[in-house]
Write a structure and sequence with these properties.
heterodimer; A: mainly alpha; 22 helices; 2 strands; 73% helix; B: mainly alpha
Chain lengths: 492, 178
């Protein structure tokens, strides 16, 4: 009873509701603007959370994440430009619907499917995260060491077209993460006697640099593409039509939840699996790809079903499932919280306050999504020529805000150039970020294990949990190699 | 069957030669990781006088990551030589970009990176935004009003709402004192 009142005290604040609403709105707006991503929005919003309470801060970021997932589908439907990779599947039927004058119906289908899937995903998060965290309480440093090894295997799946380049980026991220004073011996590592680097490379300048600045540089080093105007037209979605797709939405949501709970699998694969499953079982399978409501519903249910579920490994085990959850992990750390079983033990009211907020965000998405459909042409018609100088300004001020230091501005611009070079050479930036975050965790658990065992390596193989993670790591690596060889054979 | 001129040109433009981005990138990473492993680590990572286990060394993780990059860079280089990648459509958009557009972008970046303290947040925001609007060839007067309005509003938001003490500008302070 005491816990419930504590949860309500933490959650029932006007700031939290405003953060959720603002987060979802920002996410939808950014997701709806071609070229801007939810990842960039979460990275840019992070400095704004410094002065906020931890629950408010995390809810703002989660709101952006969820809004961005839906926002990405708006451009996919209207102008055949998916705002996020996961929305690529939505355009298969969404864009043909828009061409047939049914843009409004497609957008409403995407919205309601997203909301239902998001809700199911959130319920799964609430039920499974605590259970998994309870199991994780039995973990010691060796088990965590193997868990981090398993988490590192997600790098392959976020590497884009080249696993080799992705692994190189991850290696570079790990190297950058080692800059600063050594945690055990206190000796200097790669600081080059610069006192700004003694306390490690700041997370926010790195994040903004990698994910926001390359968009700006890319815009000014490319020819100006014509600005595409958009239009929302046609009849709306009827309850009867949506009811006909409800089974598909629920199935897609369950697929999204299962895939989202596995680190590194991602929303894109969930959307495509959900879509192909819907196509396989639908009586209107011949209409898929030509403007089928069920097709839009399946794709959106799959990709939004992932949103809540990716928070399961983050909250219960402290490992990020994708890039945005990696940023949210950073936000937890900035606010002095460490996701994982200890969070459930020491900050249970906070976790449940977060769950309440995450549930509320699904309902907020209905209102914000509907408003976005109505006023979308205003949002999407802001040309990048005006938008990007403002984005750059936010990047600069945000980077400066971390330590009130111009060094961080330089650092951010340097990572921006690196991110731009990565984009130009086909190197994914996500593995770099994962390496930067997981590198210190890997080292920390390795060292703690060796210190506990006084250097005896057999401790790494001491129990069934460690063996489960060893087998998962081996299986994940083998699976990644198999996919790589299949892709190589198909290319040949 | 012979390829027509049009087809053969298309094929030649589609693929890079041996000196392609992948082999060059692999070569670059290979050299960088060699320098890192054999020069930077020995000189810029200090070892403590006593260590309980070699894996506890402050050099262990950087060396592990360095070797990982070295091996993969070699693989990437060989892979690039054996299988030259295809050109992307996006490459075409990157050709024929006016030099002035890129120079103005660099100037805007330099204002933020070098003169942020001197010009202050508002001053550097205005200068950089004006340069970036010019880089896009914007000519309407109201757009340039935005270049002044946005830095002022965003700076005030940071200073008064988020309590971030953005710099006012040492140059303006000196001018006021003068």
């Amino acid at each position: 009873m005491e816990n419930i009142s504590e949860v309500l005290t933490l959650f029932l604040s006007i700031d939290n509701f405003m953060a959720i609403a603002a987060g979802v709105l920002i996410g939808v707006v950014v997701g709806a603007i071609p070229g801007l991503t939810a990842t960039m929005a979460v990275a840019l919003a992070l400095p704004f959370t410094f002065s906020m309470e931890p629950v408010t801060a995390i809810l703002l970021l989660v709101g952006i994440y969820k809004g961005g997932m839906y926002g990405g589908s708006i451009t996919a439907i209207l102008i055949r430009t998916p705002g996020s990779p996961a929305a690529a599947c939505t355009l298969l039927d969404g864009y043909p619907m828009a061409q047939q004058g049914q843009a409004k119906k497609a957008l409403k289908t995407a919205l309601y499917s997203s909301v239902v899937a998001d809700l199911i995903s959130n319920v799964a998060l609430i039920f499974f995260a605590a259970y998994l965290a309870k199991i994780a309480l039995n973990f010691g440093p060796p088990e965590y060491f193997w868990l981090i090894c398993f988490s590192l295997t997600i790098i392959v799946s976020v590497s884009g077209n080249s696993a080799i380049k992705g692994l190189i980026a991850a290696g570079l991220g790990i190297i950058i993460s080692t800059i600063g004073l050594d945690a055990v011996y206190g000796t200097q590592r790669l600081t080059f006697d610069n006192y700004n680097l003694m306390d490690r490379v700041s997370f926010i300048p790195l994040l903004i640099g990698l994910f926001a600045i390359p968009e700006v540089i890319d815009f000014y080093t490319s020819r100006v593409a014509p600005h595409i105007r958009t239009a929302v037209s046609g009849a709306s979605l009827t309850w009867k039509e949506f009811k006909g797709s409800l089974k598909t939405v629920i199935r897609g949501s369950v697929i999204g939840v299962i895939i989202g709970a596995i680190p590194g699998t991602g929303a894109t694969s969930a959307a495509f699996i959900s879509y192909s499953e819907a196509k396989r079982t639908s009586p209107r399978k011949d209409n898929f790809g030509k403007g089928e409501v069920e097709g839009v519903a399946a794709a959106e249910a799959g990709n939004n079903g992932v949103a809540g579920a990716t928070l399961i490994p983050l909250l219960s085990l402290g490992i990020p499932g994708d890039v945005i959850t990696a940023i949210i992990l950073g936000a937890f750390m900035i606010h002095g919280l460490t996701p994982g079983p200890v969070l459930f033990q020491e900050n249970l009211p906070l976790v449940y306050a977060l769950f309440c907020g995450i549930l509320v965000s699904s309902f907020v998405l209905v209102f914000v999504g509907n408003a976005a459909i109505r006023y979308f042409s205003i949002i999407a018609d802001i040309p990048k020529t005006i938008l990007l100088p403002i984005v750059l300004m936010f990047c600069i001020y945000g980077a400066y805000a971390v330590n009130n230091s111009t060094f961080d501005i330089g650092l951010m611009l340097a990572f921006g150039v690196l991110g731009f070079l990565f984009n130009r050479t086909g190197v994914a930036a996500a593995p770099f970020l994962i390496g930067f975050i997981l590198g210190p965790m890997f080292e920390d658990n390795l060292r703690r294990t060796l210190l506990i065992s006084k250097g005896d390596p057999t401790i790494f193989f001491r129990g069934p949990i460690a063996w489960v993670f060893i087998m998962l790591t081996v299986a994940s690596v083998a699976f990644a190699f198999r996919r790589y060889w299949i892709a190589r054979r198909e290319q040949a | 069957m012979e390829l027509s001129d049009d087809q053969s040109t298309h094929t030649a433009n589609d693929e890079y030669g041996r000196l392609n981005p992948n082999s060059l990138l692999g070569g670059l990473f290979f050299v960088v990781s060699l320098v890192f492993l054999f020069y930077v680590i020995p000189n810029y990572i200090n070892l403590p006088p006593y260590m309980q286990h070699p894996l506890l060394s402050p050099r262990f993780l950087p060396q592990l990551a360095g070797w990982l990059v070295l091996i993969l860079a070699f693989v990437l280089m060989v892979n690039g030589l054996l299988y030259p990648p295809k050109r992307e459509e996006a490459d075409e958009l990157r050709q024929g970009v006016p030099v002035l557009r890129q120079v103005l972008m660099l100037a805007a970046g330099a204002i933020y990176a070098v003169f942020f303290e001197q010009f202050g947040a508002i001053g550097s925001g205005i200068f950089a935004s004006v340069l970036l609007f010019m880089a896009s060839g914007l000519k309407s007067a109201w757009i340039y009003v935005l270049a002044v309005l946005f830095p002022v509003v965003v700076s005030l938001l940071f200073i008064h709402v988020l309590n971030v003490p953005l710099p006012v500008g040492t140059l303006w302070e000196a001018l006021l004192q003068f």
